[in-house]
Specification:
Layout: H1 4-14, E1 17-19, E2 31-33, H2 35-54, E3 59-61, H3 70-76, H4 78-81, E4 83-88, E5 95-97, E6 106-110, E7 116-120, E8 148-151, E9 154-157, E10 167-170, H5 175-180, H6 182-189, E11 195-204, E12 219-229, E13 234-235, E14 238-239, H7 240-258, E15 266-270, E16 282-290, E17 293-304, H8 306-315, E18 321-323, E19 328-330, E20 333-340, H9 341-352, E21 353-358, E22 361-366, E23 377-381, H10 387-400, E24 406-408, H11 414-423, E25 428-432, H12 434-437, E26 438-439, E27 444-445, E28 449-454, E29 460-464, H13 465-476, H14 481-485
Parallel strand pairs: 3-11, 23-24, 23-25
Antiparallel strand pairs: 1-2, 4-5, 4-8, 6-7, 9-10, 11-12, 12-20, 13-14, 15-16, 16-17, 17-20, 18-19, 21-22, 25-28, 26-27, 28-29
Helix pairs in contact: 2-9, 3-8
The protein binds adenosine-5'-triphosphate (ATP).
C-alpha cells in the first residue's frame, strides 16, 4: 500500500492536488485541486450522478443552497448534538478528538530506557516497559484534559450586523436540503414511494483534528442520496426500509468495485448500537484500506422518519405522503447513502498506484479505470522538430478532444512521455511518427497510421488514423486490449517506442 507522503508528493508534482494558499505558508488541511485533480474529481461526481440519478427510474436530483435557515439545524439536531469529544494537552496545547487518540502513533519517553524517546505504533503498548499511552500522543509529556463536547458547525453571519440574530451556519451535510424540499419535490414530480432525491455539493465541518491529506478537511464535497420508502410496505417479506437499506449497501459497494477498487481493499462495517447517530436505526459503513488504515469511505444509514418528523414539528408544516393503497398519510422512512467526493478521490488514487520494474527501470503507473482517469488519451509526436508530424499530432488531438479529454505533449523524448502519462494514469497514448506522414523531401508518402499504446500492458498496435477514434472508443468503453489489438498489426520490439 502506497504511503500518504508519496501520494501527496505525486499529487503536487503532477497537478492533482496543491496545498491551499501555499505562497502564504498554506492553510491547514485545505487543498486545491489542480488541472488533473479537477478532471478526476469531476469524473467521480459525474459517474455517481449517472449511476445514482440518471440510470435509475426512481431518483431525481437537487441542488440546495449551502446557507440554510438556522432553524433547519435546530430541527435536525445538529445544533445540540453535532459534536465530537475534544481534549487538550496541558503542555503543548494541542487539541485532539478524544475518540481518535489511539489511532495515531504516540511519542513515549520510556522510563525503563532512561527516558529515551520512542515512537510507538498506534494503539500499541511500549515494547520495553509495556506501558500504554496516557499522555499527549504528540509531545509525549503533557497530561490531557477531560473530554469536552465541541460543536462542529461552522458559524457565520448573514448581512452587515454581526449579532445573534444574524447567525447562520455553513451546512455540515447536504442531506437537510433534501428533507426541507421533500414536499416541493413530491409536488413537482408526482412521485410514488419509494423514490430518492440526490445531491452533490460542498459541506463544512469545523473538525478538531483534520488531516491525512484530503481524507479529513473542514471543507469537502459530498454525494448524498435520500431514498424515501413507505415504512408500511414490505418487499420480499421484509419491511421496506430494511430491504432498501440492504439494497443500497450492496449497490454502493458494487459501485466502488465497478470503477476499479480492488475487493481486498473494501469492506463493510456495521455500527454498534452505542455508536449509532441519534437518528439512525442501523448504519453500515463502506470502508477502504487507506494508507492510514481501514477508514470510512461512505456511510449508509437508515435515518427512519426522524428528519421529516422533526422538520414538521419545528416548521409547523405537514411533511407526509398520501398512501393511496391504505388511504392514509404516512411519514416516509429514509435510507441515506452518504459518500465523500474527496475520500473517493483518495481511495481511487491509492488503489490505482503501482510501482513495477520495466527493463531494469522503475515505472510508476496509476492503473485508473478509464472512466476515473483524468486524461483519457495523450497524443505524442515522435519528433517535435518535424513540423508535419507536430501538425498532424495536433490535428488528431483536436479531433479526439471533442469526445474525450485528450492532451498533446512534446516536451521530452517518447519513452519519457509515456512514463509521464503512466504516472498520471492516462489509459492510451497515440503516437505520430515519420511513418505516419512520410517524407515529402524524399517523395515518400506516409501510411496514415498511428501507434496506439496501452498503459497497462505497454502493448502497441498500428491503426489507420481514420479508425483510431473507433478503436479508442472500443477500448475506453471497456473492450479488452487483446480483442481490439487482434484486428491490427502489433508493434514488435523494433517499432516499439517503449523500448
Ligand atoms: P467520520 O467518522 O470520518 O468523521 P462521518 O461518519 O462523520 O465521518 P458522515 O457524516 O457519514 O461522516 O459523512 C458522509 C461522508 O462524507 C463520509 O463517509 C466521508 O466520505 C465524507 N466526509 C465526512 N466528513 C468529512 C471530512 N471532514 N472531510 C472529508 N470528507 C468527509
Amino acid at each position: 500500500m502506497v504511503d500518504m507522503d508519496t501520494l501527496v508528493s505525486l499529487c503536487k508534482r503532477r497537478g492533482f492536488v496543491f496545498q491551499s494558499s501555499e505562497i502564504y505558508g498554506g492553510l491547514g488541511s485545505s487543498w486545491d485541486y489542480g488541472p488533473l485533480g479537477v478532471e478526476m474529481k469531476r469524473n467521480i461526481r459525474d459517474l455517481w450522478w449517472r449511476d445514482v440519478v440518471h440510470l435509475r427510474r426512481d431518483v431525481v436530483g437537487l441542488e440546495a443552497a449551502v446557507l440554510m435557515h438556522p432553524r433547519v439545524w435546530e430541527a435536525s439536531g445538529h445544533l445540540e448534538r453535532f459534536s465530537d469529544p475534544m481534549v487538550d494537552c496541558n503542555a503543548c496545547k494541542r487539541r485532539f478528538r478524544a475518540d481518535q487518540l489511539d489511532d495515531v502513533p504516540w511519542v513515549h519517553y520510556c522510563p525503563s530506557r532512561k527516558d529515551t524517546k520512542f515512537e510507538v505504533p498506534a494503539g500499541e503498548a511500549c515494547a520495553h516497559c509495556g506501558e500504554r499511552r496516557i499522555l499527549c500522543p504528540v509531545c509525549g509529556k503533557g497530561a490531557l484534559t477531560e473530554p469536552r463536547q465541541f460543536n462542529l458547525m461552522l458559524k457565520t453571519f448573514l448581512g452587515p450586523v454581526e449579532d445573534e440574530a444574524a447567525v447562520t451556519y455553513l451546512r455540515p451535510e447536504t442531506a437537510q436540503g433534501m428533507f426541507v424540499n421533500f414536499e416541493n419535490v413530491l409536488q413537482a414530480t408526482r412521485r410514488k414511494l419509494p423514490f430518492g432525491i440526490a445531491q452533490v455539493g460542498r459541506s463544512f465541518r469545523n473538525e478538531i483534528t483534520p488531516g491525512n491529506f484530503i481524507f479529513r478537511t473542514r471543507e469537502f464535497e459530498q454525494m448524498e442520496l435520500e431514498f424515501f420508502v413507505n415504512p408500511a410496505d414490505t418487499v420480499d417479506g421484509q419491511p421496506a426500509d430494511e430491504y432498501w437499506h440492504q439494497h443500497w449497501i450492496a449497490e454502493r459497494l458494487a459501485w466502488y468495485r465497478r470503477y476499479g477498487i480492488r475487493a481486498e481493499n473494501l469492506r463493510l462495517r456495521e455500527h454498534a448500537k452505542e455508536e449509532l447517530a441519534h437518528y439512525a436505526k442501523r448504519t453500515v459503513d463502506v470502508e477502504y484500506r487507506f494508507a492510514i488504515g481501514w477508514s470510512e469511505l461512505e456511510g449508509i444509514a437508515n435515518r427512519t422518519d426522524y428528519d421529516l418528523r422533526r422538520h414538521a414539528e419545528v416548521s409547523g408544516r405537514t411533511l407526509t405522503y398520501f398512501d393511496d393503497e391504505r388511504k392514509g398519510h404516512v411519514v416516509p422512512y429514509v435510507i441515506e447513502p452518504a459518500a465523500g467526493v474527496d475520500r473517493s478521490f483518495l481511495a481511487f488514487l491509492s488503489d490505482a498506484y503501482h510501482v513495477e520494474e520495466v527493463r531494469g527501470e522503475r515505472r510508476v503507473v496509476l492503473r485508473f479505470h478509464p472512466e476515473i482517469a483524468p486524461v483519457k488519451i495523450a497524443v505524442l509526436p515522435l519528433l517535435k522538430k518535424r513540423a508535419d508530424i507536430v501538425a498532424r499530432a495536433w490535428a488528431i488531438r483536436d479531433e479526439l478532444a471533442r469526445r474525450w479529454v485528450t492532451v498533446y505533449d512534446d516536451t521530452a523524448a517518447i519513452g519519457r512521455l509515456y512514463r509521464r502519462q503512466d504516472e498520471v494514469g492516462t489509459p492510451y497514448c497515440v503516437t505520430v511518427d515519420v511513418q505516419t506522414v512520410g517524407d515529402a523531401e524524399k517523395g515518400e508518402t506516409g501510411d496514415d497510421c498511428v501507434t496506439i499504446r496501452d498503459r497497462d500492458s505497454m502493448g502497441q498496435m498500428r491503426v489507420p488514423i481514420g479508425e483510431a477514434a473507433l478503436a479508442l472508443g472500443r477500448l475506453l468503453g471497456g473492450a479488452e486490449w487483446a480483442t481490439v489489438a487482434g484486428g491490427y498489426p502489433t508493434q514488435g520490439a523494433k517499432g516499439n517506442h517503449d523500448a
